Amino acid sequence: MENLVIVDLGSNSVRMAINEIRDDGSFHEVRRIKEDSRISEGMGSNKVLQPIAMERTIAALKRFKHIYNNYPKRTVRGIATAAVRVAKNQAEFLKRVQDEVGIELDVLSGNDEAYYDYLGVMNSLEIKDCLILDTGGASCELIHVQNGKPRNLISVPFGAVSLSERFHLNNVVRADRLFAAQNFVNKQFRDIWWIMDALQLPIILLGGANRTLARMNRQHQGMARVDNIHGYRLKTEVVNKTFRALLSRNLANRKKMPGLETPRADIIIGGILPLVMLLQMLDADRVIFSESGVREGIISEYVHHR
Q1: 175-190 helix and 268-282 helix, angle to the nearest 10 degrees
Q2: Degrees, nearest 5: CA angle 274-158-211
Q3: What is the pLDDT of residues 70-129, one digit of tens each?
Q4: What does residue 298 show for φ and ψ, rounded to 5 degrees?
Q5: What is the residue-wise DSSP string for 26-81?
Q6: Which residue range or ranges hold the Ppx/GppA phosphatase N-terminal domain (predicted)?
Q7: Which of 23, 60, 216, 234 could make a disulfide contact with 35, Cβ separation 3.0–4.6 Å?
Q8: DSSP labels for 130-175?
Q9: 90 — phi, psi (to 5°)?
């Protein structure tokens, strides 16, 4: 038996999952922690990680280290995604993490991130044909699955944080800014040559903004286990109704909405916008939420090779 520690540095949050890997190849999650470090904050068009954001993130990584150091027979795998992937000062940040925390972060390519999403979803949901959408802080991964296999996959360079900052979707959303954001996302999706192959397929959702969408609706429906979203389904009209409700409120009032975490209230509109545009484009009638994504995909690969 050993413990596999996965430290996942996303654009909006940093997460740690500790999994007990048994000798027979089965695994069980024993600890999961998240901190909203928002490494991508203020990167802008210059694509430079900002000092304050780096400090926040490194501090979170140090707190994680104090926890996983208590687990014996551990293997630590650190990964970073979109924000670090595109950062011009990536090397500086990676060296600081190595020197100050002792973690060597593996910067995943967009295709690698999408493939691990695919592995995580297909090992946990019984579905053969779908489109997977993972909306992160600075990128979206899309995977067209046909007969259980990844037919096409891509990572596109926008997400909840970057869209919210670029089009000023954080507080009161003006009509002209929303229109500009919709046009931008629509054009990016239309440029994916295979996207219409996923017409009318169910959309499997990953990522913090999408998890928030699920929690908000589960709380609205009075469900007892609000965070138990794996396999949860919503009809398209419910997604659109939730999006309209978010648009009708300013930041202060969004923070009061049940199921919406306060630190995510300023980026939730930018986070759900890619989904809303995809639903219109592909005429999908429902979405399905998955709790399994990149981290679970990495675990599956690790166990397989082990």
Answers
A1: 50
A2: 50
A3: 999 999 999 999 999 999 999 999 999 999 999 999 999 999 999 999 999 998 999 999
A4: -65, -40
A5: -EEEEEEEEE---TTTT-GGGT---HHHHHHHHHHHHHHHHHHTTSSSEEEEEEE-
A6: 23-304
A7: 60
A8: EEEEEE-SS-EEEEEEETTEEEEEEEES--HHHHHHHTT-SSS--H
A9: -55, -50
